[in-house]
Amino acid sequence: MNMNKRAFLKASGASLAALSVTSTAFASSSAATSNKDKLKNITHGVTAITAAEREVRIKKAQKLMQQMNISALIIEPGAAMDYFSGIQWWRSERLTALVIPREGKVGIVCPFFEEPSIQESLAIEGDIRVWQEHESPFERVKQILVDRGISLSKGSIGFENSVRYFVQHGVMSLLSNLQHISAEPVTRGCRIIKSHHELQLMHKANEVTLLAYAEVYSKLEIGMSSSQVKTIMSNAQSALGGKKAWNMALIDQASAFPHGSKKKHTIKEGSIVLMDCGCNVHGYQSDISRTFVVGEPSKRQRDIWQTVRTGQQIALEQAKIGSPAGSVDDAVRKHYQAQGFGPGYNLPGLSHRTGHGIGMEGHESVNFVHGEQEILRPGMCFSNEPGIYIPGEFGVRLEDCLYMTEKGAQWFTVPPDSLDSPVGKVATFT
What is the model's pTM? Predict the structure, then answer.
């Protein structure tokens, strides 16, 4: 959209956001205006994960543990702890841990003085064991296992992959007859396949971010800095109900660096503005990238943008049930190389993977990357972001998240088809 058209629409009171995003949810929402004061929270219609759902997750984990002969799981604060227990906490030198035994009630180990706070977010029935400042928290972990009748003479303890070394060492020093292994087969086995409720929350988070993009696009002006653009985006996502919003805005040459540059740039006529933003709704993440041009795009900008849009579509169509995740990345690179980019990760071209897993964390295991043999199954969720980066000039990235169904990959948000209307729309989700 050129600046004359933008000025006309603003002068006439028309909503650029409404023109850029077409969806039933958007059309019925006052978030369609470009007035920040009229952006309303759109997340009231969705609910958080329930205690009953978390109990089902624990039962599934225990079934997997029994199949793999794992005696217990040790999990520190983070997405996995929240996933199973609802506890939202942080890590420090004082151990707080979730212990999931192969059968029976889960245990929580925490400092004595933190127990009231832990109880606030604990969403399941749990056995909290506290330790005083002069005591060893690892003794509490051991006692939970003893009380569940778990043998300390044989078997294995699974540690969630992000557990710190001092925790593993402390636990295993008291359980020297047991083996320590990765809990990834269990934790990933539970988290990789999203339920309908989880997909609903991810859809809403992506809707928030896309509507916020429409707000930003309507307000882009010559002279703006990246920090000003990010502020608009942050405010919009928050007003729409997104939590812990994060934002990146890269202008002109900085957009050729996938995660940005420290050099400062401001928008001028014909500037590329590459944005990568997201938020969460009840703990589930969005991740959307858009590339705008302020003013009239050049032919080169249009050509690169359209090549990336084609790359996104190739990735969507290649993401088929039963296919290895790596085949998606391979299909995109084959197309890009035919267009003169690459080969492989070489620049100009696509210097990163085509996509990553997503859910409660912005980046989760299983990626659209060369060599990934994990088979695509219904309920898996990914970003789809095959950018092209041209050092010294600019970069283009379009990113939308998708989820796998029996019928193939489906968008959470539908990417735009034209640089002249570059926001896209919210996909239908039932």
Answer: 0.91
